[in-house]
Design brief:
The structure is a single chain. The protein has one domain. The protein is built from 2 helices and 7 strands. The protein is of the alpha+beta class and 122 residues long. Strands 1, 2, 3, 4, 5, 6 and 7 form a 7-stranded antiparallel beta sheet that branches. The termini are far apart.
């Protein structure tokens, strides 16, 4: 459960279906550490307990990237329970590199027919 004095971030980006979203990320205190929690549609993503809220947020972002979320960015909206509004700058998280899809099949063969070839026959 959310407790007063914890941070809250607004998280925005594209979900795994390329739909834009914006949701709050809340933190739960768990013993001596913190867990980041994101609720989005029917999904609830919760990190393991980590020493700081910032580390929990980083792990949450990594987890979302692994699930296909892209163009993620956060904005701190509460610090130690104090409302900041939109005073803080957005922090962008670069998408992890993705493997290039390997074209294959009939359509690729047709495209190859029209690809320019080097003049010297190589």
């Amino acid at each position: 459960m959310e407790r007063p004095g914890l941070d809250k971030h607004q998280l925005a980006g594209l979900d795994d279906r390329e739909r834009g979203f914006s949701r709050p990320v809340e933190f739960e205190q768990a013993g001596e550490g913190y867990r980041a929690v994101l609720r989005y549609e029917a999904v609830r993503v919760t990190t393991d307990t980590l020493p700081t809220q910032d580390q929990a947020l980083t792990v949450l972002i990594q987890s979302l990237h692994a699930q296909g979320y892209r163009q993620l960015k956060t904005q701190l909206s509460f610090r130690n329970g104090l409302y900041l509004g939109s005073q803080e700058l957005w922090v962008e998280y670069p998408d992890p590199p993705q493997a290039e899809p390997q074209p294959s099949g009939f359509l690729q063969k047709i495209k190859d027919w029209f690809r320019p070839r080097p003049a010297n026959g190589q």
